[in-house]
Amino acid sequence: MLSDELDNKLESRIEKILSQKSRRKKTFDGFKKNKVINEVLDKPTVMELYDLIKSKIISYINGVVKAGKESVIFWAVDENKKDIALKVYLVTTSSFKKRAPYLVGDPRFSRIKKGTKNLVYLWAQKEFRNLSLCYEKGLPVVRPIHVTKNILVMDFIGKNGAPTKTLLESQVDQQDYESAISLLRRLYKEAKLVHGDFSEYNIFKTENGLLLFDLGSAVDLRHPNANEFLKRDINNITKFFVKRGLTVANPVDVLLKVTK
Ligand SMILES: Nc1ncnc2c1ncn2[C@@H]1O[C@H](COP(=O)(O)OP(=O)(O)OP(=O)(O)O)[C@@H](O)[C@H]1O
Ligand SMILES: [Mg+2]
To answer: Fewer CB atoms near the end CB (10 Å): N or C, the chain?
Structure first.
């Protein structure tokens, strides 16, 4: 009887230790336990993240940086402990209407397969390609690392999982305005791209100057609406700096400066 009781006690102790251990350990797929990840992601995306871990592009995922309607940004870490950002485009809430104008008409993406999923994959590819093109030309953009299906892997800009402030969140000065315009010009002249969503929301203000991101909407200059998008980009960024009380050039002159 006594030995039975001892056995039971021992068993329950072992069980307790084991369960504590497994709680501490990462789960099999590299996600730390108790991190909310799956609630917003569909299974293929979770599998894709798992593949990124298996192929050693990342080592594990730390958590969510920002969850938007159409994408979620994760903070991950690679094998060298370097911070990595994952931009996961959500397939379920993707809006074709919003993206079509930036895809249709860009000769680089003339073959568009039907279906939301394919469109989202294409969008991720497009952002990766735009970033790569700019990065290779030496433009200040976030360094792209990898793209697979609806996941874009890139450098993490920030510290301890907190992203660097955007222009919107920063104090800005005249130098920032000049840099923003020069960035537009370099995009146009060197990468032959128009951003399409160039704004205070999509530019980091780092210690080393401005750094552009969110290039999914950027189009080739041959896109029939490239000029219209450029004018809008100039207007938006001009409005922002005016709101902040800085001296800005006339948008028409800026357009000339960027394109001539
Ligand atoms: N490489 C990165 N490193 C660190 N943080 C990032 C990175 N890329 C994006 N972020 C963070 O995630 C936010 C959203 O990123 P992004 O603009 O690329 O996505 P989005 O789909 O346009 O989202 P939104 O609709 O909120 O603009 C950024 O404002 C920034 O705070
Ligand atoms: Mg954005």
So the answer is: N
Pick from 25-29, 216-220, 241-245: least confident: 25-29
Rounded to two decimals, the pTM is 0.86
Rg (CA), the chain: 23
Structure tokens at 119: 């469109």
Q: By mean pLDDT, which of 30-39, 154-163, 234-243 is the weakest?
A: 30-39
Q: What distance in Å separates the CA atoms of residue 124 and residue 139, rounded to the nearest whole number?
A: 20
Domain contains 93: yes
Q: Is the CB of 158 under 6 A from ligand 1?
A: yes
State which residues form the domain around 97: 34-162
Residue to substitute in 147, 213, 217, 236 for testing ligand 1 pocket (most ligand atoms within 8 angstroms of CB): 213
How far apart CA 144 and CA 231 sit, in angstroms, is 27
Q: Let me know how long the chain is.
A: 260
- In the listed set 142, 162, 182, which residue is the last one of a domain according to the structure? 162
Average pLDDT over residues 200-226: 98
Separation of alpha carbons 194 and 197, rounded Å: 9
Say yes or no: CB of residue 154 within 6 Å of ligand 1.
Answer: yes
Task: Identify the burial level of 59 via C-beta atoms within 10 angstroms of its C-beta, where 0-12 means exposed, 13-18 middle and 19 or more buried.
Answer: middle
Asked whether residue 201 carries a pLDDT value surpassing 80, the answer given is: yes
Query: How many C-beta atoms lie closer than 10 Å to residue 226's C-beta?
Result: 20
Whether 59 and 151 share a structural domain: yes
